[in-house]
């Protein structure tokens, strides 16, 4: 396998120290890895497979099964559109369309400059403020398609509810 | 400070109660995820700053609590002991509240809840209809305590049930739970005592107690609120469960999308260990039990119990056949009890007040209370807990305040992607497990999504199919291929490409999926389809045979026009249109340009005079209008 | 009548009384009694998978008042008094839906075409896969690979996007080139090439070991290493191919037994 990722394995080694070296630790390990690298680099997955004594094929299988994981680098800011039922009824579709149009990506995609990744999430439990848009850590309730540009520009700001 | 015995526990709780009783008053600021997203953190900070002083001077304490439930009116603040409820509080209101209400003892009318029917302002939160009809058992402490302070929880009754259970034998505990009639609150409604008993009887020394915190139903957030707002209620239930079945290990599986729940649960576990309520020799009983947390990876299917267990084992979330029950062979093929968050939260209360107390509430077969998240086109969106048996009408109108904008009610969807739609004709249905199933829906997690006339039921069914196609694990043919093909049929229906025989194909495929799928995800996937077909068949027929969407929602079938007779030129539609398809000057007739219109309906929603109308695209085309 | 939990039980399948050991899977019991139930993802050497759902049957018990439940025969353990219907209307309906769906996915695969035709389906009722494949996702390949203790390939993604693939879509580092996956595949979906000098599968190329006795390349270097490790024998055990090994052993036996008149097995 070509180790073309070229990432620093030190953070991964540190993460692997935190958990018992067994299959049951796999998903927790991958989550910490994803948080540290902003995706699952192939070299890291190989190291995880080795350390946890899980075949690489199975690690890869788990990495592609769960929505929390991306195998390619994600944007610095993750933008999530809630597509839960309440949000759907209150206009999430328009919101998502507009967001994708402005950033020039498909849902799940990342902008070429690795600035933003657009994701849909199933329900964040803030249904009273549907539709909900989360830019980074900031929740935007009662989000409007017309204000998408404003939300993107204010990424990293405080909580906002219109 | 470790509590070494049951006697010491009584003393400790008394001390904790006394400590909180010395507080003259409290300001309870709702800091559930919903209110936080609405700016509640800033409100809490403002109160803390306004009320700070030396411990001797400060008599009013600011408390950041879990979800109060009335999400529509957040940020919410409740004052104790007066019980005054303030809604939509902003940081700039805080100074006035402190001056007039905390110190002055008078309420500020503009911040009080206003009853839409009477126009009256209501002071006490328990008089507000949203709260008046509730009976909070699983959510008994949420909104009253600071979830990050175990002493606050203890002062309000946490672990009383456990203390009592440890003086009983496991058999006696099982009997109490059986008396309560508690059924699984995750959706299936399986009798909890029966599940525990199977596990107790299973052979083997090592057993597991699992908590399913993978609340995946879109629109449901009761489990999130419980885990965030009163994590100790979950821990307490699990320890009691362990005592009853003979397990010493508990794991809480929390979905990845609930970071605050993970934080609060982690803290609660650490504090419980510190007090000796988790770990070895709990309260001197000789019983050992500990709990850890495991985060999900983002898969709705992991709400299914066998898939959840595979996920805990580090594997993909593929369910397996239930011919051998998890209570015999579950996690690592060892005896396992898996229950939902709300079920665990109920257990402590049941042991504290007795099974008979719980069974005195509810209906014949569905005892006790149930948490519901009331969302969608309803005025009072939020989280409530009610005795089983209240009718949908009571829930949606008395508590929910009716449909948003007073639009006509169309249906309420319950049970998430496994559930169905209940139409207006059945609004007087008492809500319990059996009645909802008979009506073609199910209880599910407790999500209730209210829909008005601007909802297309074919679109709703398609929405759930799309959701499920992305969540199917892909192992079995009926679900993987069936959902995919079903969605293709629905894509055609909403785009006006329906063919004769589509409805029959849908029905046949539905039956095949119900009978052939490996797990409940696939088996119940046809429910939203079949229930909308049952009650709204005419909409399907309109889509297939006439290429029309009666609700005016499906964009490929619908377009909009402005009636010259009714338009008063208010310009509202112009401002609402996202693609500048409307032209018109203020006080003049506005026009929608068909070549630009994307049929989103924003103009229709914005128009105050009903001048905007929708009509089938083919009708517009027939007129030859551009 | 049955003896205790692991004793003999009597089940009734399509009206026929069949004896079996309690806990045996229904499929095995039925086939043993000459009653065929169709399967696609089943293999007698592997744990049942439950993915294709073709082996659905209706089961009931006395005291259920005729109420039946649908189960898959390959994973359902028999018990005394079980009554089984392998051809009830809803069983046949379900099998048809499964085959209809598979035919949509794999419209050009003879195995599926033939099986579907047996149930009266010559054309799918659903949308034909615009990118037809022969892979029916029975996972026999990944399961046998796991069974052999290699786990070089696995299912990737979920839902309709699920597929069988090596990690990262590249040559799987753990693959030993044994061809078990290709051989167990019911639709010959997995391509490979093999010769006396090398073998390629899943984009990975292997060096072959040639039998010194007959010259045939029979096993890859990696395969020998893997099975030597598992079996606790030396790698040299795998130098001779199976046929020559048998011949060698037969000759040894002959020598030891000194059975007159039995001709030694020659070469090939």
Strand content of chain B: 5-15%
Strand percentage of chain C = 15-25%
Number of separate domains of chain B: 5
State the order of secondary-structure elements of chain C, H for helix, E for strand.
Answer: EEHEEEHHHEEHEEEEHH
Report the span from N to C terminus of chain B: 78 Å
Mean of all residue-level pLDDT scores of chain B: 94
Q: What oligomeric assembly is this protein in?
A: heterotrimer
Largest interface: A-B, 48 and 56 residues
Report Rg of chain C. 23 Å
Main sheet characteristics of chain B: 5 strands, mixed
Secondary structure: helix percent of chain C: 25-40%
| pLDDT < 50 runs, ≥5 residues of chain C | none
Count of DSSP-assigned helices of chain B: 25
Topology:
The complex is a heterotrimer of chains A (162), B (626) and C (268).
Chain A: H1 10-17, H2 26-37, H3 42-52, H4 56-65, E1 77-82, H5 85-89, H6 92-103, E2 116-121, E3 133-135, E4 138-141, H7 148-153, E5 160-161
Parallel strand pairs in A: 1-2, 4-5
Antiparallel strand pairs in A: 1-3, 3-4
Chain B: H1 6-21, E1 25-30, H2 33-37, H3 40-51, E2 60-65, E3 77-80, E4 85-86, H4 94-103, E5 113-114, E6 121-122, H5 129-132, H6 150-155, H7 160-165, H8 170-180, H9 192-201, E7 208-213, H10 222-229, H11 231-245, E8 249-254, H12 259-275, E9 290-295, H13 305-312, E10 336-340, H14 341-353, H15 355-359, E11 369-376, E12 382-387, H16 392-399, E13 409-414, E14 420-423, H17 433-438, E15 447-452, H18 457-471, H19 477-494, H20 502-516, H21 520-524, H22 527-546, E16 558-562, H23 572-576, E17 582-583, E18 591-592, H24 602-606, E19 612-616, H25 617-623
Parallel strand pairs in B: 1-2, 7-8, 7-10, 8-9, 11-15
Antiparallel strand pairs in B: 1-3, 3-4, 5-6, 11-12, 13-14, 13-15, 16-19, 17-18
Helix pairs in contact in B: 8-9, 8-11, 10-11, 10-12, 11-14, 18-19, 18-22, 19-20, 20-22
Chain C: E1 8-13, E2 16-21, H1 26-32, E3 56-60, E4 69-72, E5 83-85, H2 89-105, H3 110-118, H4 140-147, E6 154-156, E7 163-165, H5 180-184, E8 192-194, E9 198-201, E10 204-210, E11 217-220, H6 221-231, H7 242-257
Parallel strand pairs in C: 1-5
Antiparallel strand pairs in C: 1-2, 3-4, 3-5, 6-7, 8-9, 9-10, 10-11
Helix pairs in contact in C: 2-3
Structure notes:
The complex is a heterotrimer of chains A (162), B (626) and C (268). By secondary structure, chain A is an alpha/beta fold. Chain A contains seven helices and five strands; from the N terminus they run ααααβααβββαβ. A five-stranded mixed sheet of chain A has the order 2-1-3-4-5, with helices on one face. The longest helix of chain A is centred in the N-terminal third of the chain and has 12 residues. The N and C termini of chain A lie far apart (51 Å). In chain B, strand 17 and strand 18 form a beta hairpin. The mean pLDDT of chain B is 94. Chain C is 27% helix and 18% strand. In chain C, the strands form three sheets. In chain C, strands 2-1-5-3-4 form a five-stranded mixed sheet, with helices on both faces. Classes of the chains: A alpha/beta (162), B alpha/beta (626), C alpha+beta (268). Chains B and C meet through helix 18, helix 19 and helix 20 of B and strand 4 and helix 2 of C.
């Amino acid at each position: 396998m070509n180790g073309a990722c070229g990432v620093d394995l030190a953070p991964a080694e540190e993460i692997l120290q935190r958990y018992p070296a067994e299959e049951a630790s796999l998903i927790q390990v991958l989550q910490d890895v994803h948080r540290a690298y902003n995706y699952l680099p192939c070299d890291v997955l190989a190291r995880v497979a080795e350390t946890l004594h899980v075949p690489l094929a199975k690690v890869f299988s788990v990495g592609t099964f769960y929505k929390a994981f991306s195998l390619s680098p994600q944007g610095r800011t993750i933008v999530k559109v809630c597509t839960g039922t309440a949000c759907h009824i209150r206009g999430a579709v328009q919101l998502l369309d507009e967001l994708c149009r402005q950033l020039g990506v498909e849902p799940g995609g990342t902008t070429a400059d690795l600035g933003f990744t657009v994701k849909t999430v199933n329900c964040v439990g803030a249904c009273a403020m549907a539709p909900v848009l989360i830019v980074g850590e900031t929740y935007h309730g009662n989000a409007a398609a017309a204000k998408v540009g404003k939300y993107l520009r204010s990424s990293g700001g405080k909580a906002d509810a219109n | 400070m470790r509590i070494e015995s049951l006697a010491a526990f009584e003393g400790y709780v008394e001390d904790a109660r006394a400590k909180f009783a010395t507080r003259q008053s409290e300001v309870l600021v709702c800091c559930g995820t919903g209110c936080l997203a609405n700016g509640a953190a800033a409100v809490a900070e403002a109160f803390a700053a306004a009320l700070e002083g030396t411990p001797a001077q400060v008599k009013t304490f600011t408390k950041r609590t879990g979800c109060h439930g009335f999400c529509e009116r957040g940020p919410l603040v409740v004052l104790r002991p007066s019980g005054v409820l303030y809604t939509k509080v902003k940081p700039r209101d805080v100074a006035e509240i402190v001056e007039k209400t905390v110190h002055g003892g008078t309420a500020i009318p503009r911040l009080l809840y206003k009853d839409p029917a009477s126009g009256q302002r209501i002071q006490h939160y328990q008089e507000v209809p949203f709260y008046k009809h509730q009976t909070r058992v699983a959510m008994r402490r949420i909104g009253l305590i600071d979830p990050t302070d175990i002493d606050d929880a203890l002062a309000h009754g946490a672990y009383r049930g456990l203390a009592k259970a440890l003086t009983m034998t496991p058999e006696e505990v099982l009997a109490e739970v059986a008396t309560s009639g508690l059924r699984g609150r995750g959706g299936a409604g399986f009798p909890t005592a029966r599940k525990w008993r199977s596990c107790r009887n299973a052979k083997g020394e090592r057993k597991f107690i699992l908590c399913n915190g993978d609340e995946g139903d879109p629109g449901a957030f009761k489990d999130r609120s419980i885990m965030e707002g009163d994590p100790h209620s979950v821990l307490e239930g699990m320890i009691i469960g362990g005592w009853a079945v003979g397990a010493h290990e508990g794991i809480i599986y929390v979905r990845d999308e609930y970071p605050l729940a993970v934080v609060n649960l982690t803290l609660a576990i650490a504090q419980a260990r510190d007090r000796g309520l988790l770990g070895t020799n709990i309260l001197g009983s000789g019983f050992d039990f500990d709990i850890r947390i495991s985060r999900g990876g983002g898969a709705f299917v992991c709400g299914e119990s066998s898939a959840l267990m595979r996920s805990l084992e580090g594997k993909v979330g593929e369910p397996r056949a239930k011919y051998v029950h998890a209570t015999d062979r579950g996690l690592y093929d060892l005896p396992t009890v898996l229950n939902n968050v709300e079920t665990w939260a109920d257990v402590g209360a049941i042991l504290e007040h007795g099974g008979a107390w719980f069974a005195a509430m509810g209906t014949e077969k569905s005892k006790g209370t149930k948490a519901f998240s009331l969302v969608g086109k309803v005025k009072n969106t939020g989280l409530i807990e009610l005795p089983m048996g209240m009718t949908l009408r009571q829930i949606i109108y008395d508590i929910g305040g009716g449909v948003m904008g007073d639009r006509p009610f169309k249906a309420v969807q319950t049970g998430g992607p496994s559930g169905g739609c209940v139409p207006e004709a059945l609004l007087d249905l008492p809500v319990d497990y059996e009645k909802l199933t008979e009506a073609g829906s199910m209880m599910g997690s407790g999500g209730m999504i209210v829909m008005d006339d601007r909802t297309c039921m074919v679109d709703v069914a398609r929405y759930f199919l799309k959701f499920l196609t992305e969540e199917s694990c892909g192992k079995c043919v009926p679900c993987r291929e069936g959902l995919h093909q079903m969605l293709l049929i629905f894509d055609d229906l909403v785009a006006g490409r329906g063919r004769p025989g589509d409805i029959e194909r849908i029905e046949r495929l539905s039956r095949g999926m119900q009978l052939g799928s490996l797990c409940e995800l696939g088996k119940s996937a046809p429910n939203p389809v079949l229930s909308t077909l049952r009650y709204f068949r005419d909409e399907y027929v309109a889509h297939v045979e006439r290429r029309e969407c009666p609700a005016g929602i499906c964009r490929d079938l619908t377009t909009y026009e402005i009636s010259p007779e009714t338009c008063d030129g208010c310009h509202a539609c112009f401002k609402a249109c996202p693609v500048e398809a409307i032209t018109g000057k203020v006080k003049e007739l506005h026009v929608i340009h068909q070549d630009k219109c994307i049929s989103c309906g924003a103009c229709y929603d914005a128009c105050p005079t009903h001048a905007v109308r929708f009509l089938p695209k083919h009708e517009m085309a027939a007129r030859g209008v551009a | 009548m049955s003896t205790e939990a692991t004793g003999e039980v009597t089940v009734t399948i399509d009206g026929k009384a069949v004896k079996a050991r309690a806990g045996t899977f229904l499929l095995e019991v039925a086939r043993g009694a000459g009653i065929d139930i169709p399967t696609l993802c089943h293999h007698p050497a592997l744990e049942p998978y439950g993915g294709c759902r073709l082996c659905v049957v209706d089961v009931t018990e006395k005291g259920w008042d005729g109420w039946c439940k649908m189960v898959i025969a390959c994973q359902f353990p028999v018990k005394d008094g079980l009554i089984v219907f392998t051809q009830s209307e809803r069983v046949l309906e379900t099998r048809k839906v499964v085959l209809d769906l598979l035919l949509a996915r794999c419209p050009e695969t003879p195995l599926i075409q033939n099986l579907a035709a047996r149930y009266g389906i010559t054309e799918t009722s659903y949308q034909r896969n615009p990118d037809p494949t022969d892979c029916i996702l029975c996972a026999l390949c990944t399961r046998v690979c796991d069974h052999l203790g290699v786990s070089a390939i696995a299912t990737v993604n979920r839902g309709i996007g699920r597929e069988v693939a090596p990690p990262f879509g590249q040559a799987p580092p753990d693959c030993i080139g044994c061809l078990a996956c290709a051989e167990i595949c019911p639709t010959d979906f997995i391509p490979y090439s093999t010769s006396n000098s090398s073998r390629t599968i899943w984009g990975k190329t292997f060096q072959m070991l040639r039998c010194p006795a007959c010259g045939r390349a029979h096993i890859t270097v990696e395969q020998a290493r893997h099975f030597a490790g598992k079996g606790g024998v030396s790698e040299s055990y795998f130098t001779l191919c199976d046929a020559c090994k048998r011949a060698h052993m037969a000759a040894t036996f002959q020598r030891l037994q000194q059975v007159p008149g039995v001709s030694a097995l020659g070469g090939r």
